[in-house]
Amino acid sequence: MKLYNTLTHKVEEFVPMQQGKVGIYSCGPTVYSHPHIGNFRSFLVADLLKRFFEFKGFSVTHIMNITDVGHLVDDADEGADKLEETARKQKKDPLEIAKFYTESFMQASKLLNIKPSDKYPKATEHISEMIDMVKKLIDKGYAYVVGHNVYYDVMKFANYGQLSGNTLEDVNAGARIEINQEKKNPQDFALWKHDPKHLQQWDSPWGRGFPGWHIECSAMSSKYLGAEFDIHTGGEDNIFPHHECEIAQSEAASGKKFVHYWLHTRFLLFDGEKMSKSKGNLYTIPELIEKGVRKNAIRYALISSHYRQNYNFTFDGLKAAEQAIDKMQQCVLQLKDIQKSSKAGEICQQIKDLSSNCLAQFDEALSDDLNISKALAVCFDFIREVNKAEDMNLSEASALLETISKIDSVLGVLESTDEEVPENIIELAEKRKTAKLNKDWKTADAVRAEISAQGWLLEDTPGGGYRIKRGENT
RNA sequence: GGCGGCGUAGCCAAGCGGCCCAAGGCGAUGGUUUGCAAAACCAUUAUUCGUGGGUUCGAAUCCCACCGCCGCCUCCA
Q1: A341 and A218 in one domain?
Q2: How, if at all, do strands A259-265 and A229-235 pair?
Q3: Last residue of a domain, one of A378, A411, A444
């Protein structure tokens, strides 16, 4: 398994800390608004990674934080917290806001078939762990107190800038922030902030206040995965300053290496443009579904291109994704038909080879830094071969279905095909069958149109049978 | 200004020194099949990889220059 490590700027062989196990920490949502498709690309990459590790037989511990405090709206560590701003606008308690949007996030995650993390720790529930870490950093001389504020002294951490490639001087040169006179260096960042206007406040050794933005991930990751762990994921925007600061905090506090592999997902574009509130292209999952987009097509689209590549999200792309999924789904339907109509028997060598080659190549593709395009190509080559195979018995069909199921345990795009076909649709289908036997084509076509109007698609199968599935005849 | 990425067919996208007259998906066209469809299958759809040089026996792949696009540099996945 090879992964691109942002820390070393190289594709590296993944070596787990413990044989057969992998710990993954993913930067989750900040719950002050509905998460949008951009957020979900990053979460889906984490999901794909995790599912693939499981496919390979790893035991995965996956932690995704919920940030319900601490992100400042404007520069210079001043001003309102985003959560607080929403809370003030909606005249609600910040925790109420957080709860509402956490629920929104969970629902959308479910729609996208994202496997739940082992734990979704919330920042507000880990204040004491953060305070402990800040204390430790002060004790070790990496942090200093000014009044009721605590800052991290970046000059003390030699590797600061290792992840992002930023040097302290460069950060300084490009800085858009106003110099905070309290800090020893402009690049120093807050570990604990004092602001009487803030709605969310906790007691600390430095007075009432709230934690800095970066400390939560350091504190929570070490609590649930240990001070040193395998993989940390996030969006590319997290590289600097968030993850850079996490490294500085965690490594200074523990004296250990923090994260072995850093994975960053590149931003999504929408119709070739950056997504932003002002452009109005920050679609949420429910919004897309309301527009008639199928949820598994959203998932497919978002995972179907490489995570280190900007993916241009378009409605045409979603259409293509739907078609691609239908192609897979159709193959499953045909195999299920064979299961129903044939008897068990020997599995011929050709089918065995087809399955094992497919799984091996699929594994190989994703093992190469999650080369999803290659992996999908393997799937479609496999499907073509399956569709070409003739005279299959039940055992062979089952074996091939098993293979598809293994693949979809990673992709997660196939829908259950077990939806009950309504009685009246079956009656219509039977009516058409009779009409066809009588060569009454007019009636047959009319009935098929009627079935289509009700949202079902009737397909004839060889030998006079039929198959009913969701969809419409065009 | 600093750091980083990208430019491959109508669209999406893999390939990163010879297996490439370049995978796969979507779309399109023709064919097989079908009462007609749908689905499936077959064939065609880039002799060429932003442009110009160079290295090499050999380059989409390495180097240089240029053009264009994008991201990050304390709000952001």
Answers
A1: no
A2: parallel
A3: A411
Distance (Å, whole) CA A422 – CA A320:
29
Any domain includes A417: no
Each residue's pLDDT tens digit, A229-250: 999 999 988 888 889 999 999 9
Nearest nt (C1') to A457 (CA)? B38
The verdict on residue A271 lying in a domain is: no
Among residues A370, A262, A243, the alpha carbon closest in space to that of A5 is found at: A262
Predicted confidence (pLDDT) per residue in A99-148, tens digit: 999 999 999 999 999 999 999 999 999 999 999 999 999 999 999 999 99
Is A269 in contact with A310 (CB distance < 8 Å)? Answer: yes
The residues of A between 428 and 457 with beta carbon within 7 Å of nucleic strand B are: 436, 441, 444-445, 448, 457
Full domain range(s) for residue A439: 423-470
List the one residue out of A218, A232, A227, A229 whose CA is nearest residue A254: A227
ipTM for this prediction: 0.93
Q: Do A207 and A333 lie in a common domain?
A: no
Q: Residues of A from 133 to 172 whose C-beta is within 7 A of strand B: which are they?
A: 164-167, 170-171
- State which nucleotides on strand B lie below 7 Å from a protein beta carbon: 1-6, 11-15, 23-27, 34-42, 70-77
Do A356 and A385 lie in one domain? The reply is: yes
Are A403 and A448 members of one domain? no
